[in-house]
Specification:
The complex is a heterodimer of chains A (305) and B (321). Chain A is an all-alpha fold and 305 residues long. In chain A, 74% of the residues lie in helices and 0% in strands. Chain A has 13 helices and no strands. In chain A, α3 (37-54) crosses α5, α5 packs across α8 and α7 crosses α11. Chain B has twelve helices and two strands; from the N terminus they run αααββααααααααα. Chain B has helices at 2-29, 44-53, 60-72, 86-121, 126-139, 143-157, 177-215, 218-225, 230-267, 273-282, 286-314, 316-320; strands at 78-79, 84-85. The radius of gyration of chain B is 24 Å and the shape is globular. Chain B starts with a helix and ends with a helix. The chains are: A mainly alpha (305), B mainly alpha (321).
Chain lengths: 305, 321
């Protein structure tokens, strides 16, 4: 029965990939993206990951929170229990599926928050210029000097335990500093272009210029940075859960599954190994996809290959 | 040069002031104050005295001034989990983090620059492709998981390196000084390897791009036209120019290394700043955690200033400006 479910999930993924491929073939940026085999594989991996995340309840073999049996504590991987069980006798395979779902959701939402704030902040600083710009950017400099994980640990410790919503907010609110710098630099160069001067001569207001001319031109590097940023957020979320300030125990997240496996690493290595592989695959896929996007969307910054 | 240094120092001070204001805001906005979670291990009179010392019984503006003054004088508060001032804790733990950091920085630059040069010279070949793939693979790993896996493979499965700590506690008392050194170095291998694998991808990528940029400069074409060997071109012309921008990267790599050190130190029980920070999480030690924010950012600021000065020393065009 379960094999059938996995087969149909695989068919769905294959259909999605084929549809994307046919849509992409021969179209400017899409063709440039498709020219990178690694980027295409990364995109396929991301589709697989999101399908798994979306259908986690349907694909899981067991209840991720249920304790199977006392005899099944730290049980090694087998045909029944694909990734083995943890110290409490819970199925690691199902926990990893649900954990991927939670980690992907948090990372995506946190990245959306950070992109919105970073773009608004950077665009304001770059467009206004002068003292305001200088003050705003010194502020960003200060926060870039704090290692992000140390900042997150401090906030997490003071407000622990964090709920899912506050975790998303905190990850988003601490991730926008590099984006704002990037946007500011882009805005500074766009501001000098003729189209902006022309719009101003025609009597356009600042807000209209920003919306019609500046933001659309800024979006390309922002999308690339956001894609690469998701990988960082996923890793930071895992680190917080690993430290015990992220998602609390019975609910699985990739970080807290590794946390529970750490004391038993010498004997029950599978508990820490498999969620880590899921994390690496996710982060690597986002990094490769981001590199592919940069080459495809921003021909000025082409990597010399 | 002197003006450059003065400007950088001023900027650095501004950064630390903003960070200190931020940690003050954090402490103030958090539920309770640094002494609320002491689990009655410390007598109430003692806590009341410390509250008074850190001005927590005074109005907010006075607290802020008091906080800035104590930070400026190096007094970072009182740690409830270790029942002693944070400054004493830092004196014990920061040097071990600096040891780990400097070795990690050195190793990741050696490996990163080496790989970058290799990739640029073998551009488009399997070696280039493979090296970039492998470094990106390690870059995508969560640092704590990489550390765990290295410990699993090289300490549990193949008992080559010690699992944790800074020295072998059983043999330490009888070791000669030479055995001490070897033992300590063996304990350093896995943490430094983790930090190196984590950060060398960025350095290699940067070095590769800088090499490829420098290879297109006109004096390289001239050298090639004069018949200088390909090795000579790389060594004398390309590498020299490509190494300059990488100095700046040292300043940018520091936050990543310091952040990575937190979890790497935790996994390997390396008694440094990061280890203490991670341990402070469970005991809700406000003063220790916020001091860690201040100290790591101060280290980053100092590192960046050093990198800027080195850059100015290496490049006469900047020095003159």
């Amino acid at each position: 029965m379960l094999a059938l479910r996995w087969l149909s999930a695989a068919a769905l993924i294959a259909a999605l990939c084929v549809a994307l491929w046919r849509f992409a073939r021969g179209r400017g940026a899409f063709a440039r993206y498709a020219a990178h085999p690694s980027a295409v594989i990364a995109l396929a991996a991301l589709i697989v990951l999101y399908v798994i995340a979306a259908f986690a309840p349907w694909l899981a073999t067991h209840d991720p929170i249920a304790i199977l049996a006392q005899a099944l504590v730290n049980h090694p991987p087998s045909r029944e229990l694909l990734f083995g069980t943890d110290y409490a006798g819970r199925d690691v395979f199902s926990r990893v599926l649900y954990g991927t779902r939670i980690s992907l959701t948090i990372a995506l939402l946190a990245t959306v928050i950070s992109v919105i704030i970073g773009t608004a902040y950077g665009a304001t600083a770059g467009f206004m210029g002068g003292t305001l710009d200088a003050v705003m950017m010194r502020f960003v400099d200060a926060f870039l000097a704090i290692p992000r994980i140390v900042l997150l640990i401090a906030i997490g410790t003071l407000w622990s335990p964090l709920g899912m919503t506050s975790l998303i907010l905190i990850l988003g609110l601490t991730a926008w500093f590099p984006t704002s710098r990037l946007v500011r630099a882009e805005v500074l160069s766009i501001k000098e272009r003729d189209m902006v001067a022309a719009a101003r001569a025609l009597g356009a207001r600042d807000l209209a210029i920003v919306r019609r001319h500046v933001l659309p031109n800024v979006m390309t590097p922002v999308i690339v940075a956001a894609t690469l940023g998701v990988a960082g957020v996923i890793i930071n979320e895992a680190a917080l859960s690993y430290l015990g300030i992220g998602i609390p125990d019975p609910t699985p997240s990739l970080g807290n599954i590794i946390r529970e496996g750490t004391p038993y690493i010498a004997t029950a290595w599978w508990v820490a190994l498999f969620p880590g592989i899921a994390l690496v695959v996710t982060a690597l896929a986002y990094n490769l996809a981001g590199d592919g996007l940069r080459d495809a969307m921003d021909p000025r910054q082409v990597d010399h290959t | 040069m002197r003006r450059l240094l003065a400007g950088r120092l001023l900027q650095g001070l501004a950064v630390i002031w903003v960070v200190a204001t931020f940690t003050f805001a954090l402490l103030h906005l958090a539920p309770g104050d640094p002494f609320s979670y002491s689990e009655r291990r410390i007598a109430p009179e003692v806590i009341a005295r410390w509250r008074h010392v850190y001005c927590l019984d005074r109005p907010l503006p006075a607290q802020y001034v008091c906080y800035l003054r104590s930070v400026a004088s190096g007094d970072l508060g009182y740690s409830i989990s270790q029942a002693r001032p944070v400054r004493d804790i830092l004196v014990d733990y920061v040097p071990r983090t600096l040891e780990l950091m400097s070795l990690g920085l050195l190793a990741s630059f050696l490996v990163g620059i080496g790989l970058g040069v290799l990739e640029a010279r073998r551009r488009g070949t399997f070696a280039d492709w493979g090296s970039r793939g492998i470094t990106l693979f390690f870059y995508s790993m969560p640092d704590f998981w990489l550390a765990l896996m290295l410990a699993l493979i090289f300490a549990y499965w193949l008992p080559i390196f010690p699992i944790s700590g800074i020295e072998d506690v059983i043999n330490a008392p009888t070791n000669s000084w030479w055995q001490h050194v070897v033992d300590h170095l063996r304990h350093l291998v896995l943490p430094v390897a983790t930090l190196t694998l984590m950060t060398c991808a960025g350095i290699a990528r940067f070095q590769r791009a800088a090499m490829l940029d420098a290879m297109q400069l006109e004096f390289v074409v001239t050298a090639r036209a004069k018949g200088v060997s390909e090795n000579g071109i790389v060594r004398h012309h390309v590498l020299r120019n490509a190494l300059l921008p990488i100095i700046t990267l040292a300043g940018l790599t520091l936050p990543m290394l310091l952040g990575g050190a937190v979890l790497v130190e935790l996994v390997f029980s390396w008694p440094g700043m990061g280890f203490v920070t991670a341990m402070a999480v469970g005991s809700r030690d406000y003063a220790l955690v916020t001091s860690s924010v201040l100290i790591t950012s101060a280290l980053v600021v100092v590192g960046t200033i050093i990198a800027d000065l080195l850059y100015a020393l290496a490049d006469p065009r900047v020095r003159a400006a």
